[in-house]
Amino acid sequence: HSMGLVPATSGNFSARLLDNNMLITVSGRNKGRLERGDLMLADSMGSSLDGKMPSAETLLHVQIYNRFRDARCVLHPHSVNATLLSLMAGDNIVLQDYEILKAFPGIDTHECTVTVPVFANDQDIGRLSAAVETRMQNSEEVFHGYLIRGHGFYTWGNSVDDALRHVEAFEFLFDCELRRREVTHQ
Question: Looking at residue 143, what DSSP letter applies?
């Protein structure tokens, strides 16, 4: 929040619990002022277990937890860089030869390429979640996150610290890509 990555009430965060239920931010809460009551308990399918209203995008968290069994935390910021880049990109953003790519698991050299899918924004979250799952299921790529056009990005990790590291790395990379595109188009 202090970095401007979740302005107003945007974004949502979740953590998978040991029983496969999850804590997720309640819809419409300011992420810079979260308190205990701003988190809710949901089951592994995203249904509320405590009567609170989940984020409209809960199914995207569910999809990530189902796809990546080691994922313990999902973070969804709405940064300016991610939002602008998603509007400029096609179906993917290719990140290549950046040293900071080593922030992602399984990458130990800058001499690599990471593809970040860009999905069309859709108010039907079930349909959007299915599109994300289909892309991941039908690809041999290793995924560390994805963008939703004009919206923000999703990333995850095996811990809160891992997911935060991924947010910071993506934010740096998205900023670099925007600047690179600006320079190459002048």
Answer: P
Looking up tokens 């560390």 gives 144
Nearest to residue 93, comparing CAs of 153, 6, 167?
153
For residue 37, the SS3 value is helix
Whole-number Å distance between alpha carbons of 57 and 65: 13
Decide if pLDDT at 33 tops 60: yes
Closest by alpha carbon to 85, among 140, 5, 13, 153? 153
First-to-last alpha carbon distance for the chain, in angstroms, is: 32
| Residue range 89-121, pLDDT digits in tens | 999 999 999 999 999 999 999 998 999 999 999
Map tokens 């089951």 to a residue.
43
Cα gap 83→47, rounded to integer Å: 28
In this structure, which amino acid lies at residue 102? Answer: K
Residue 65 has pLDDT above 70, yes or no: yes
CA nearest neighbour of 53 among 35, 74, 39: 39
Q: For residues 103 and 168, is the Cβ–Cβ distance under 8 A? A: yes
**Amino acid at site 72:** R
8 Å CB contact between 34 and 25:
yes
Is the pTM higher than 0.90?
Answer: yes
Q: Is 157 helix (H, G, I), strand (E, B) or coil?
A: strand
